[in-house]
Amino acid sequence: MPQGQVASVPTDGLTTRQRRNRPLLVVHTGAMKGKSTAAFGTALRGWNQGWSIAVFQFVKSAKWKVGEEEAFRALGTVHEQTGQGGPVEWHKMGSGWSWSRRSGTEADHAADAAEGWAEIRRRISAGAHDLYVLDEFTYPLKWGWIDVDEVVATLADRPGHQHVIVTGRDAPPALVEAADLVMETTKIKHPMDAGQKGQRGIEW
Amino acid sequence: MPQGQVASVPTDGLTTRQRRNRPLLVVHTGAMKGKSTAAFGTALRGWNQGWSIAVFQFVKSAKWKVGEEEAFRALGTVHEQTGQGGPVEWHKMGSGWSWSRRSGTEADHAADAAEGWAEIRRRISAGAHDLYVLDEFTYPLKWGWIDVDEVVATLADRPGHQHVIVTGRDAPPALVEAADLVMETTKIKHPMDAGQKGQRGIEW
C-alpha cells in the first residue's frame, strides 16, 4: 500500500504532532461483510501498541464472531502473563450483558442495547480505554433504541485520546457526518450468490 | 449482521456440506485501506479453528504492518505453548525473504517477488497450510513480476482444502474472475483528506 499522502494542509493551528495524535471516530459501513473484520484487524495494531482495547458487540446471539473473540481473549492473556501488547475486554450483548443485573427471561433487546450504550458512555467519560470497537452498533441506532444525537454528542465531547470504531450497515447520517474516517465495503462477488453456505473459519 | 441468505441453489451436484467446506479464493481489492486489515481479521477466525496460517507480505519495507505481525506471532506462541488455536508463519519480502539465499546488496524486488511466489506454489502443491494470506500480492502481478495466468492455474489446481486470501489494489481481471469472493473497499471519508497524518496504532 502506498504511503498516505496529504491532500491539503489544514488551517486548524495544530502541529503535525498534534494532528497525528488526534483521537479518531471511525465508521465501517456498507452492504458487504468485512466491516467488523477490518475493525478487529485494526484492533490488532492497537493491541500491539499496548492500548487498552474494549469491544462491545451489539449482537443478539452469544455465538457470533466467537473466532475473533477467542483470539483477542488469548491476546489479553498474553498481555496479563508477559506484558506484551495491551489489555483486552470483550463484552457481548447476547441475551444480556455480563455486568447486567436486569433479570427476567423475556428478551428485551432494546433495553439491552440502551444498557450497553450507558456503560460505554460511562467508560468514555472516565477515559477508561484507548480503543473502543462498537460492533454492529448501527443497528440499535437505526431502530431507535439508542438516540443518535446523544451518541454523537458524547463522542464529540470525549476526553483524552480515545479512538472509537463503529461497525454495521446503514450508519446514520449524523454519525457519518461526525466521523473522521468512513469505510464502506462493497460486494463485488460473493459465494452465497452461487448458493454456497457460510463456512467455519471464514464466516465465523 | 443478518444471517447470510442463499440467493439461488446451485446445480453442481454437491451436498450442502460439501459446498460448505469448499476452499475459497478471496480477493480484497479497492482504493481504500482495510483490505489487509480485513484479511488479518479473517485469519483470526481461522486461527481459532486451529488452522495452520501462513502470511506472505509482498511489501518493500520490513517495517510495514508490524502491529498485525506482532499480534499473530503472539497467537502463534499461544498455540505452541497451550495448543489453543493454530500455528502461524509470517513471512515478509522486505529486502529479501528470510529463507532466501540470494545475496548481494542490490535490491531486486522483481526477483524477490518471484521467489516468494515460487515458495508459495511449493507449499500449495504440498498442501502445507489451511489459510494463506498473500498480502499486497496484486502489485507484483500488476507489474508483471509474476505471471497472473500461472497464479490462477496454480490456485485452481490446489489440492485439499486450502483457503487463499489475496489483497491489494487493482486486482487483475483474471484473478477476480477466478475468485469465489471479492471485496472492494471504498473510501467515503478519510482524515488524510483533511490534512491529518497517519498515526500509530491506527495506520501501523
Structural descriptors:
CblAdoTrfase_CobA (chains A, B); 204 residues; homodimer; Cob(I)yrinic acid a,c-diamide adenosyltransferase (chains A, B); 6 strands; Rossmann fold; globular; transferase (chains A, B); alpha/beta
What is the topology?
2 copies of one chain form a homodimer.
Chain A (H helix, E strand, L loop, with lengths): L15 H5 L4 E6 L4 H14 L4 E5 L8 H17 L5 E5 L16 H18 L4 E5 L2 H5 L5 H9 L6 E5 L5 H6 L2 E9 L15
Protein name (chains A, B): Cob(I)yrinic acid a,c-diamide adenosyltransferase
Pfam families (chains A, B): CobA_CobO_BtuR (PF02572)
Organism (chains A, B): Pseudonocardia nematodicida
Describe the structure.
The structure is a homodimer of 204-residue chains. Chain A starts with 15 loop residues before the first helix and ends in a 15-residue tail after the last strand. Chain A has a single domain, classed as P-loop containing nucleotide triphosphate hydrolases (Rossmann fold), CATH 3.40.50.300. With 204 residues, the first copy, chain A, is α/β, with parallel strands linked by helices. Chain A is globular, with a radius of gyration of 18 Å. Chain A has seven helices and six strands; from the N terminus they run H-E-H-E-H-E-H-E-H-H-E-H-E. In chain A, strands 3-2-4-5-1-6 form a six-stranded parallel sheet. The longest helix of chain A is centred in the middle third of the chain and has 18 residues, at 109-126. Chain A has helices at residues 16-20, 35-48, 66-82, 109-126, 138-142, 148-156, 173-178; strands spanning 25-30, 53-57, 88-92, 131-135, 163-167, 181-189. The interface between A and B is large, with 82 and 82 residues. Strand 6 (181-189) of chain A pairs antiparallel with strand 6 (181-189) of chain B. Chains A, B: InterPro entries: CblAdoTrfase_CobA (IPR003724), P-loop_NTPase (IPR027417). Chains A, B: Keywords: Transferase. Chains A, B: Its EC number is 2.5.1.17. Chains A, B: It comes from Pseudonocardia nematodicida.
